[in-house]
What we know:
single chain, alpha+beta, Beta Polymerase, domain 2, 6-stranded mixed beta sheet, two-stranded antiparallel ribbon, 9 helices, 52% helix, globular
Amino acid sequence: MLATYLEVVDSVAPGLVEGLYVVGSYALNDWVDGASDIDIVAVTAEPATDDDFELLRSAHAKLSDRQPKPDIDGPYLAWGDLLIEPATGLHRPWKLGDELHHDGDCFEINPVLWFSLAKYGIAVRGPDPRILGIPTDTEARIRWVVGNLQTYWSAVARQVDDACRGAEPATFETAAFVWCVLGSLRLHYTAFTGDVTSKRGAGEHGLRVAATQFHPTIRAAMAHRAAGELGEVSAEQMQRAASLIRWCTTEVTEAVSKPF
């Protein structure tokens, strides 16, 4: 899959991508065929220009024709970016789903990605990420997790509640349910261990540490993901997921959000 990606990118933009690393579910030994995307960090010599972005957009369009799935997602960073604590808001190209962007809104440029790349990244092209000197400050990583739970994830829980309490309660895709349950638990795991884990690992963590009332919700999310199921879940199930997000946020805030 990535051989085709490199073949296409090299043909459209020769020499642009100097490094290619796999992170995410594949690197964490939690790949689900037919459900998982390929999460990458691509590295260029210098920060990509607008002209580089246009070449990458052409390359991804060509790749989509040849290999539409799985999605290959992630940022295009410069080597120098990896030597500093991640500056969220870097103006870099990044891919998510069907869209290639070139702005400062890439969520993945954060201390968790830096740590994931440094510890678990798999080199497809370029030196082993463990020798790149990528900073992996534990305090920065945990503080980022705390802030993300208190802002992004708290907002997600409120949005779910609002949608469920409407005159005509919304229905939700299974993928959204899995993301809410296992995504929030991944951050809970990082906050308390300093490490990162896969979605399956997050579910197993939740079954160890969360109150038993949440266990059916966690098991349901794990089962949906393992089966690669598409479909919908009920408003009631999503409200339980929102409650789990709030539990994760409260637990982390009370235990971790304090001076180090």
